[in-house]
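Putative efflux pump membrane fusion protein, Stratiformator vulcanicus. Tokens?
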Amino acid sequence: MSLKLAIAHLAIILLFASAATSLASAQDEAVVIEDALVRLISDVKVSASKAGRLELLGVQEGDTVEAGQQLGRLQDTVARIDVELARLELRIAEEKAADDVDKRFAAKSLAVAESELALSERATRRAPGSISKTELDRLKLVADRAELSIEQADRDLRVADLTTRHKERLVEAAQAQVGLHEIVAPINGTIVEIYAEAGEWLTEGDPLVRLIRTDRLRVEVSLNASRYGSGLLGRSTRLAVRLPSGQRDVEFNGVITFVSPEVQPVSGKVRVWAEVENPEGLLRPGVRGQLTILPEME
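Tokens:
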């Protein structure tokens, strides 16, 4: 029994050693895949953010656009009027916030009332009974009311300041609504399909154009999962593609950016992606070529 156990242990050790050697050799060797498929990385349908009539369509198929560039615009007359109304309300609020007349008037009224009260109190001390208690109480009430008027004026100014800030946010919200009428490109790319024309009604989420990015493309292959794994990440690649008749064969440099954590149960293979640069647009999505995953030392 001990001999059989020792043999079993030895077999397991040899199995792991063989797997480690296989993986190590896979990292040191070039991997050539003959039927690598080129795909898009970014393929976007750009949609309307809200419902409205398409007033302007500023692109056509084949146009190259940059991220943030306007592709179209919905009719925004009402939204722009709302912005103007919000700005007017803001100006009114700013005028009120800057108006401290009530506070200055209340301060002067308090000074006069306090002066009258002080004179009356001195007169009463010099000649008791010369001014009635009722009159003294009235003068004190006038001074108290002037003091409360100052507090009220301060409160009104604080409320006016808050109102101004509130109106500023309303202006921003109205401007944002105008922005929602613009349909802009989310990425750099090329317009390949247009789904609506100027004058048509779009509901929220309706696509206007299809936009693809071709300056950087993905190459997809499947490799034997028993030999290749996450160690491929970051490895340099070279894609060779035969261009249409009359043009030369071209190579494109890239790098492995994805190794799937899933193994396909039937084939025992794992999906691997490389991303390649395509600055001149010579490489087209959908073509196939030879992908070489270069050794780590290269």
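The two ends are 50 Å apart (CA to CA).
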